[in-house]
Amino acid sequence: MNYKQYLKAQIYADAQNIKRDPMLKWFILMPVIMGLFLKLLLPIATDGLKPIGVDLTQYYDLIIGLYVVLMIPMLLGVIIGFMLLDEKDDRILMSIQVTPLSIDKYILYRVATPMLLSYPILLLMIPAIGVTDISLLDLALVSILGAIWAPLLGLLLPIFANNKVEGFVIMKLLGGIMIIPVASFFVAQPYELLFGIMPAYWPIKAFWLAGNDEPYLTHLVVGIIYTGLLLYLLLKLSRKKVFD
After folding, report:
1. What's the rounded Cα separation, in Å, for the pair 117 and 123?
2. Whole-angstrom Cα distance, residue 203 to residue 142?
């Protein structure tokens, strides 16, 4: 079996594993559910808050940035993370060293998968929800940063968790931490940049700036470099702790 045949077999095996696992199937459905939830309920919530003087429309880009640009790549990354946890627990990763895929190619496959899935989903879902005015060009650029975010979470789970129970706890913890950068929108400049230590800050902020026709390329470039550096460090760490 050559490399391409083994890769096709691996993709098929992954699809079957997701099909058999109720939790992973739920994660696959969540982006669709979230998209429908935002499209249908955001206008209702906006109308309901108007009588008390709250204009929810000014927070649309923040809401979409959090629940779409961040959350959807996170869910796709978590799927890969849980699959790696299963393979780590079953010692499947040890056997990959003797396959045509090799460890390095296998890591590339695992890292690239959530990125390649996240990017088109973001490009399609955000216009479909239809509550932001971001241009397609700006969305295409910001979605790069959202997609790069996905494999970070996929690598964190097998690095710091030994089983699915621990992985679920870490996932919940990361979900809570991910919300913290939202506070930066209510902090005066330049103090909001203190939240930049959290990689979640950069895609949220870049999306918000782009959606409000403000300069965002600095946040985009810094975010890509910073997230890329973290991804590189996690790859090095996972090579030692997960794949060796």
Report:
1. 11
2. 7
How many Å apart are CA 98 and CA 95, to the nearest integer? Answer: 6
For 90-142, what is each residue's pLDDT tens digit? Answer: 666 666 666 666 777 788 888 899 999 999 999 999 999 988 889 999 999 99
Q: What's the token pair of residue 193?
A: 């940049």
Query: Phi/psi at 38 (nearest 5 deg)?
Result: -70, -40
| Residue among 154, 156, 163 nearest 77 (CA) | 154
CB 54 within 8 A of CB 88: no
- For the chain, give the number of residues: 244
Report the alpha-carbon angle 239-80-204, nearest 5: 100
The sign of the dihedral angle between the CA atoms of 201, 203, 204, 205 is positive
Q: Terminus-to-terminus CA distance in the chain, angstroms?
A: 24
Q: Which residues of 96-132 are buried (b: 16+ CB within 10 A; e: fewer)?
A: beeeebebeebbeebbebbbebbbebbbebbeebebb
What pLDDT, in 10s, does the model give residues 178-224? 888 888 888 888 888 889 999 999 999 999 999 989 999 999 999 99
User: DSSP 3-state assignment of 2?
Assistant: coil
Q: Could you tell me which of 69, 244, 80 has the C-alpha nearest to residue 167? A: 80
Question: CA 184 from chain center: how many Å?
Answer: 20
